[in-house]
């Protein structure tokens, strides 16, 4: 993990590790930092590739389409953990499980953007959060995380007479469905209704499905082209429909969000498992989360 970067003024900057540097978002993170040779917050200290990858030992500039800058990729993840203050993980669920364990063992701050995590991952995250600061978010976008708060609020305000549908659309190469963001929106809607998503979710419809059951939360998926990501939560009533939508048009927003989360995690005084809503303080925003729902009173006719 040789690093020949200019070290002038690095003492005040966080040492960042990028896990899975051959991934799409990971490469954007590297580019975000390298756009500013003296980045105000981070120095790129380590970058990993999959075990046994022929890219191990290569200057990551070639992997990310950048001029050489002396940082070589490695498949020795533990060495990168030990060398860094904070790490960002956009990999695959199996790799992420190992990264969670390393964070718990080393106490290093970790930001996770990997999707497709299971209940076993959730249990591991809770355990690792006892000794490390971990930010886990299926979507690093500020706008999406505001959308989650709004969906929860709308679900609480609109009764079961409003059916809830979550629709998401992504590029042809995405391998999990529904997306982690769609699932998080479903969780937000379920929390607003005070129900269990696992009991209320309608994951697929085909053939003679019968009438829609009251209170269910439906999901639908579209895959194709190069769509960065689109998510819509629809609240469907009789004679009216409310739709809350977020469209991502540039993947760089996920890289910038991940770096923002990494800076927050490194400075966080507490161990634990946190979300992007903690990072951008939506949970504490009275304007979004604590405003009471005002119900209109009938006007008496004179």
- Rg is 21 Å
CATH superfamily of the largest domain: NAD(P)-binding Rossmann-like Domain
Q: Which blocks of ≥5 consecutive residues have pLDDT under 50?
A: 284-302
Number of domains: 2
Number of strands: 11
Outline the biggest β-sheet.
6 strands, parallel
Shape: elongated
Q: Number of helical runs?
A: 11
**First CA to last CA: what distance?**
81 Å
CATH architecture of the largest domain: 3-Layer(aba) Sandwich
For the biggest β-sheet, the strand order reads 2-1-3-4-5-11
Question: What is the CATH T-level topology of the largest domain?
Answer: Rossmann fold
Approximate helicity band: 25-40%
Supply the CATH class of the largest domain: Alpha Beta
- Average pLDDT reading: 88
- Based on secondary structure, the structural category is alpha/beta
What string gives the helices and strands in order? EHEHHEHEHEHEHHEEEEHEHH
